[in-house]
Write a structure and sequence with these properties.
Helix 1 packs across helix 2. The chain is mainly alpha-helical and 227 residues long. Strand 1 and strand 2 form a beta hairpin. It folds into two domains: 74 residues, Arc Repressor Mutant, subunit A (Orthogonal Bundle); 126 residues, no CATH class. A two-stranded antiparallel ribbon has the order 1-2. The chain is elongated and about 55 Å long. It is 68% helix and 2% strand. It starts with a strand and ends with a helix.
Amino acid sequence: MSERDREGESLPDRLPTLPRGRHGLSREFVRKNQRDRITAGIIAAVAERGYEGAKVTDITAAAGLSRRAFYTHFKSKEECFFATFDLIADHLRRVAAEATDPDDEWPDKVGARIGAVLEVFSANPDLARYVLIAPPRAGDEIAARYRQAMDEVLAELIEGMPSIYRKRQPSKATEHAMIGGAAALVVRKVEAGEGADLRQLRSHLLEMMLTPFLGREAAVERAQQPR
């Protein structure tokens, strides 16, 4: 995959290696190619081995680069992980925002955002492994960044919610349970080897996210409506 995030950087999957020796390519091109390859490398390594199990040598092997090239761009595996986590998060945020229509009702916007993110994860389940599975099993700092990201996702989903739905404003504990439950459904499917089928979760996740605000009956009805 070679999708672009809002700043023009890529979320690479498999990138061609550069020719050895003199190739006439600019320094800027080489640096960007290397950084993209490292991004792809850490996504692959963490998806396969988890954060703790992925070593810098695993990342560079997946990237087809040397350790020296890695440390030209990052001081540590942790720094590389955070940079890539934020890159993926920004990409998902942009994709979700672009999927909405300003004229849609709020529940339909929530459904569009959920559907867009599931499309990305279905196309490359390693991204779901990287941002949803690996962080809670890593150290405290990474787990904290994950929880912050989940709070940001929830805030973006309820952004623009009309006051009529705020009458049912759930508690913070309920909000955390909502977003945690949604992530758990995605994780379960990915770990079962069904990442390519994540689109099937759209109606379940939409119902889960809407129920605290609309009530279960109305949430079920919305979730079952044709897209």
